[in-house]
Protein: OBG-type G domain-containing protein
Amino acid sequence: MPRDPLIGLVGKPSAGKSSTLNSLTDASSKVGNFPFTTIDPQRAIGYLQIDCACARYGLSDRCKPNYGACVNGRRSVPIELLDVAGLVPGAHQGKGLGNKFLDDLRHADALIHVVDVSGTTDAEGKNTRGYDPSVDIAWLRSEIVAWIRGNLMEKWGSIKRRHVAAKATAVETLQNQFSGYGSTSAVVARTLDKLGLKEPLEEWSEETIDRVVNAFTDEKFPTVIALNKIDHPDADKNIAKIAKMQDPNTIVLCSAISEIFLRKMAKQGYIRYTEGSEFVDTREDLIAAGDPDGGGLKELDEKNRNRIENLKDMVLYRFGSTGVVQVLSKAAEMLGLVPVFPVRNTTTFGSGAGDSKYVFRDCVLVKKNSTVADVARKVMGDAPIAYIEGPGGIRVAEDQVVAVGKNDILSFKIGK
Structure:
């Protein structure tokens, strides 16, 4: 199954980006088929939690994904992650790994900006106290905007002349310039529609160009702000400040190191942990709840017992989870990702293979407003499609849009 879209993780040194990436890609505590976690040193596979179609049809007990897992209708779907390294102030001027950082970043469909909300690391990731992490959020965006604006203004005179000579539309001209950032004409069109500009491109002022670049940045690089290290004593005041400055729908509070610890303890059989939730049970908890065997869990030593109790109080009960699962869910929400389930048989939902008792073996993630034809191309490539069926063998038109619960279970019939 295809693995795009691509989510980029950015963050200054020591912000917790590596811990966040590790917690998103660790499948050790899940049950299912997780054949790979890393693709190359910068790319890895994370697992996005979604509601599986099997729950709709009461088939959760027969759902066995080819990749990922499905437990009681909650499915972990592979999604590709990109570690965008080298974020330092002045990246757009080539400082640090600036050029490589920006070149890597342009491949991403959305960004997760991991911010050290404790304020204990400065702009370059060195230990300090009392640093204002809201500054990090501002300068990441300013680096991207300055990079795009600088590239555009460098050639603006010739861009305008070509635009007039070719009698091109603003979308056509800008897409020629923005395609290098992984843009599409649809992204550029949405950018200009939101601005509602009246003046023709050749008459744009520098202020208008700034507005266009800022709007394009928001459209092309939707960003989740992952406020990490929420269990630190100084985190609360910084969270409160950032919450007043940023759209609250872009913020997720998280503790990546807590998530890694909980998954490790669950894997080793010391606790029972439901990822993305506040629920952690120790052997003692289960015995107190009436299970004389304590769920078969191992006995915790005093150090780890205290650590888990502190983690419950400081993170899980206060915030409802470690936030790591929610970080990826928020990125998917920003992109409007729709899970689509390709099947062979639209009555049994099987794959048609020898193990056809299993259902919904595959799942792909497509962007919002994708059509049935878009899904066909993504799943089947250039194979000739005779027709497409939905549940119950009902034919589906290629121009229909897919959405959760609508045209999201499809069977592609090969032929001319």
Remarks:
- The two ends are 23 Å apart (CA to CA).
- The CA atoms of residues 119 and 131 lie 4 Å apart.
- The chain has a mean pLDDT of 89.
- The first helix runs from residue 17 to 25.
